[in-house]
């Protein structure tokens, strides 16, 4: 008998606690820790977001599963910004519509999922902002305004250009400091 995906996901997460375990299009994906370059980009983004987040009582979480619905995939973005006391699905999963910003840094094998698959899962779950930082293309893409199961707005800037974040952020990401 084949076990349901949710059960296999939990088993994989329990077997590999030091890795990022996600379900993407019905497959279980186990990712190693990021490279030093990947982590440096995340650190530089974190430095830019921390003031705005802390000033509003928000929190920035690494390695939390985003709950997108009962039969939907389970993604684990590199960074998740949540308001104080967000709505949780379980201890390890926050509801997508209870987030403020999700961010991923593209790695060698994640480009397709980060650019195409994950936005198709995040938008129907009403994730307000999804930021994709691509050191290979030297660009940053922001998906925003989820409506009708898709993102109505996609903004792409080259590394070095500012990327304004919509309300309630009131700040622009200095992409020259990311890569």
Task: Break the fold down into its secondary structure elements and pairings.
Blueprint: H1 5-15, E1 20-24, E2 27-31, H2 36-55, E3 59-61, E4 65-67, E5 74-75, E6 79-82, E7 88-90, E8 93-95, E9 101-105, H3 111-122, E10 129-134, E11 139-147, E12 150-158, E13 162-165, E14 171-174
Parallel strand pairs: 4-8, 9-10
Antiparallel strand pairs: 1-2, 3-6, 4-5, 6-9, 7-8, 10-11, 11-12, 13-14
GO molecular function: endonuclease activity
InterPro entries: Nuclease_put_TT1808, Restrct_endonuc-II-like, Uma2
Protein name: Uma2 family endonuclease
Note down, in words, how this protein is organized.
- The protein has 179 residues and is of the alpha+beta class.
- It has one domain: tt1808, chain A (Alpha-Beta Complex).
- Helices cover 24% and strands 36% of the residues.
- A six-stranded mixed beta sheet has the order 3-6-9-10-11-12, sandwiched between helices. Strands 5-4-8-7 form a four-stranded mixed beta sheet, with no helix packed on it.
- It is globular and about 45 Å long.
- One of its GO terms (molecular function) is endonuclease activity.
- InterPro entries: Nuclease_put_TT1808, Restrct_endonuc-II-like, Uma2.
- Keywords: Endonuclease, Hydrolase, Nuclease.
